[in-house]
Amino acid sequence: MDKKLTLSLDQTVIEMAKSYAKSNGTSLSKLIESYLNNLTIRDKKETTITPLVESLSGVIDLSEDFDEKEAYSDYLIEKYK
């Protein structure tokens, strides 16, 4: 059973969302319904760890001050030299 919902949003966001919905062949209502549905289902899903991932847990021992973002940035800089 469908119910009406009133939202207050920025006019620019509304216009962009309508354009996106139209370009994807759906209505703004269905787009928002789908988003909220996916959002709430994702929160309810229990994360399962595959055996492969579990077997890899603890393989790498990193120092407390290891900065993942900096390491990734260094990797990208080196990769695209």
What can you see in these coordinates?
It contains 4 helices and no strands. It has 81 residues and is mainly alpha-helical. It has one domain. 0% of the residues are buried.
- SSE succession: HHHH
| Overall mean pLDDT | 88
Going by helix content, strand content and strand pairing, the class is mainly alpha
Helix share, percent: 55-70%
CA-based gyration radius: 21 Å
Key descriptive features of the protein:
81 residues; mainly alpha; 59% helix
Concise overview:
The chain has 81 residues and is an all-alpha fold. It has 4 helices and no strands. The longest helix is centred in the middle third of the chain and has 17 residues, at 28-44.
